[in-house]
């Protein structure tokens, strides 16, 4: 089954393409790759971020790419100083945890300050996945 929006569609839904939307989008896309859901109901996600923008923009990216949505109660947001996403396959129980690497915060801040939001988003979009997240599969 094919589900999920393209990154451009996610940006239209969200209102713009910023680095935090892209982070969430890439996390959700990776969850689909690793957990291999058969339906839009197979994956649950816990988003652990500071409960303020721009960090919560990751939620829109995850909803768009992984199909975990507030309406289906398949995504939850927990207050945290860390930035991580825990995905679980409802049927198999397999888990994927993605922890944003601290260096990424500096990259976003520096690029955004010097070149703007769109360039910061493109930088995150093009960054090697291993440089973006620490990945744990259980």
Brief account:
The protein is α+β, with helices and mostly antiparallel strands and 138 residues long. The protein has helices spanning 7-14, 19-35, 57-66, 102-115, 117-126, 129-132, and strands at residues 43-49, 75-79, 84-89, 95-100, 133-137.
Key descriptive features of the protein:
single chain, globular, 5-stranded mixed sheet, 6 helices, 60s Ribosomal Protein L30, Chain: A, alpha+beta, 138 residues, 21% strand
Written account of the structure:
By secondary structure, the protein is of the alpha+beta class. The protein has a single domain (7-137), classed as 60s Ribosomal Protein L30, Chain: A, CATH 3.30.1330.130. The protein has 6 helices and 5 strands, in the order ααβαβββαααβ. It has helices spanning 7-14, 19-35, 57-66, 102-115, 117-126, 129-132, and strands at 43-49, 75-79, 84-89, 95-100, 133-137. Helix 4 (102-115) runs antiparallel to helix 5. The chain starts with 6 loop residues before the first helix and ends with a strand.
Largest sheet: 5 strands, mixed
Structural class: alpha+beta
* Molecular shape: globular
Q: Which strand order spans the largest sheet, edge to edge or round the barrel?
A: 2-1-3-4-5
Distance between the termini: 24 Å
Low-confidence stretches: none
């Amino acid at each position: 089954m094919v589900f999920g929006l393209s990154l451009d569609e996610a940006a239209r839904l969200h209102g713009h393409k910023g680095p935090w939307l892209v982070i969430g989008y890439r996390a959700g896309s990776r969850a689909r790759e690793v957990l291999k859901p058969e339906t839009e109901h197979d994956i649950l996600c816990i988003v652990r971020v500071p409960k303020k923008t721009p960090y919560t923009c990751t939620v829109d990216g995850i909803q768009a790419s992984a199909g975990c949505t507030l309406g289906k109660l398949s995504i939850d947001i927990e207050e945290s100083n860390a930035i991580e996403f825990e995905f679980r396959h409802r049927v198999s129980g397999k888990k994927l945890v993605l922890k944003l690497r601290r260096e990424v915060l500096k990259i976003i801040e520096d690029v955004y300050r010097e070149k703007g939001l769109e360039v910061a988003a493109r930088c995150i979009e093009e960054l090697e996945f291993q440089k973006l997240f620490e990945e744990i599969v259980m």
